[in-house]
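Revision sheet: structure tokens.
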Amino acid sequence: MNIAYFGSPILSAELLDSLFNVNTLDIKLIVTQPDKPAGKSLSMKPTAVKTCAQTHTTSIFDKSLDEISEKALIDLFRMHNIDLGIVFAYGVIIPQNVLKSTQYGFWNIHPSLLPLYRGASPTIFPILLGDTKTGITLIQMNEEMDQGDIIGQKEIQIQDSASRIDIEMQIAPIATKMVAQAVDTLQKNGTIEIRPQIHKGATYTRRITKQDGYAPFELIKDSLTGGCRAHVTEQLEIVSWYYGHNKLLTTPVQNPAKLIWNMYRTLVGWPGIWTTINTNRGKKRLKIVKMNFDGRALSLETVQLEGKNEVSFQKFNKAYNII
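Predicted:
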């Protein structure tokens, strides 16, 4: 079975690399976003998926999709006799005429237990909101985002200490097995069993911005001193957005220390957690570089004040006396 793979970022490249190692999968064509300027020099940089494809000397299509390029892509499908499209984090809505141009349509790998956490950041919100499990869903794509019929699902447990990176590291090996098994079934039977998504109770996420890493200083102070700011809508903008956007009228009460810990392990790397404090030179941004949580108490280990080097929180607090 000839496959076209659609993806762009490093997570998608990790899955692609894993799929290349499955002998029963014949990946003939890689579709990814165009090179983009990056870094201080703004030199053009390929997507991680394109770089992976180049190491496997596979045909690559990396043009922006418009009326002309869509036709060129469909022509490539015919040239390579593409039977099935597989999509993971492509980052662009695939037009209907492309979705309908292969014999078996398109499958999408979505790293959540759909219909929960549809949209752009499905690995962020389950950890942020304190869920104990998430997962991966393989769906048959349709014209609606993340609403296709379900081919298969696999749960992933979220340990109390697990970061987003820990969860993301499990995606490629699990999704590879799911795709390989589904393709094997399709090849043997000529069809595959699917079940409709239950749309009632569906929730949606959005892209994360740098601002989402902001935590009010008083909330961080409460998390360190045992204070309580009970309702989510009074605490973090990213959390209150989720409950408001999804019209979830009951917002849970959370321990401030647990909430900040969830935020830290969710936003690790980028955008991280930051707050603002008053100094004798005005208000400055303070980045929380490292923290620990023992299940009850939160402790800050390393911080970085705007324009300064990283230091231990103990040393920083001795100088600035913020707690």
